[in-house]
Amino acid sequence: MPFLPTFDDSNDQFALEPNAFGQSEEVRSPDQRVRIAIRALRQMRQQMDNVLDMLERGEGDMEVDTGLFRTQAVPREEDGEGRIVEGVFDGERMMGTDGVKYNVPPNYASKSKLVEGDIMKLVIKEDGSFVFKQIGPVERERVVGTLAIDDYGNYALIDEDGRSYHILTASVTYFRGEAGDEIVGLLPQDQSASWAAVENIIKK
Known about the structure:
Blueprint: H1 30-56, H2 66-72, E1 83-89, E2 93-96, E3 101-103, H3 106-112, E4 119-124, E5 130-136, E6 140-149, E7 155-159, E8 164-166, H4 169-175, E9 182-188, E10 197-202
Antiparallel strand pairs: 1-2, 1-4, 2-3, 4-5, 6-7, 6-9, 7-8, 9-10
Helix pairs in contact: 3-4
């Protein structure tokens, strides 16, 4: 398993590249997200081929560290920044092209108003710190609904048609939202989604 460190959100280590939605200017199409997914699958296939080749050569008596094989295809250097992994945001985490899901700090995701399908870049620096950057936001659409909370403390946006979308607790905390408040969320345009980014909360 990859080392996934905890984050101190007080450190300003996460790059924000805002536009009108708090996002960077370039918008990537669904085709570009598909290409990233295909790249991840190809790397995973290569890693499986490596394991099979090792076993066929009679090295199956050694312990296989699947995490090692998974990370071998990840790194590339970029201007001395460190190791680079690109991926797609799924509402909570970044699904990397290496097949690993990286935890995105909730405060960063909330401040950046990240939406499912956004393309991201993770820089893993030499000191082990993680720096996330949004490099390709999807087109967005707004949804208005009511803030709800379940018995386990999980928040959701319920729209006027009764559809529910998960939202990050960090977003609710930032806006000091409470159950019953009106909430304005952001969704990927013309695509199904399980998560909504919080654009604003209007107190009742």
